[in-house]
Amino acid sequence: MLPSAEIGVFGGTAFYSFLDDVEEVTVQTPYGAPSAPVAVGLVGGRRVAFLPRHGPGHGIPAHRVNYRANLWALRRLGVRRLLAPCSVGSLQPHVRPGDFVVCDQLVDRTSGRADTFFDGPLPAHVSFADPYCPELGRAAVDAAQAEGVTVHERGTVVVIQGPRFSTRAESRWFSSAGWEVVNMTQYPEAVLARELGICYSGLALVTDYDAGVERAEAVTMEAVFRMLAENIERVKGVLLRAIPAIPADPSCGCADGAMDPGSLPA
Q: Pick the catalytic residue: 208, 249, 256, 260?
């Protein structure tokens, strides 16, 4: 019998250490294998399921992540609230490397990704006007402020296909639209969570200025990973504060129009 968890966390493998009493489980899904076994444990008395979206050792690039399997695996374990830390590049001078952004909107610029559970035969549509859960967002903002980190309480993330970074022209375009940050994983994670009735919040760590920001250097993976390593403890600190503060009973409406749990195959 699979263990259960009420809250899920996506992130890098360095996050394993914030769980207590960890049990690692392999979850089968109709969409293939998730990125890794799921670690289930305790944070502040809450049952939490953790899954590294890029797999052990960060070996799966963003465009190859099996997002449907990852979301399905957490849903099978009972997860209804999901925090999704991620790295982002800044598109605006006032959003600085080292800042956190709790996104409230996204723009999808990916292509070819499997991004729905509603493949037929009956059509179904979920509301996605507000992609992120306001309750989880509030918990993340409050936790970041309590940790003393600079946090932007809202922002739009534009999600690109990867694995390449943006050209300077693309980056200037995104910046001129007024969007705050750019990333490769928030879509389709957010919409798949919505289809399964899971509240979702992206907690974004700004690792660099994107190429189109004035005087920005070209983005490199070395610089991104260096910033992540320097800030991993701050991200974990925010999660440790946010998770116990998440309301046990949602009042946000994120599950409206979601799939009927009874219709989900094992």
A: 208
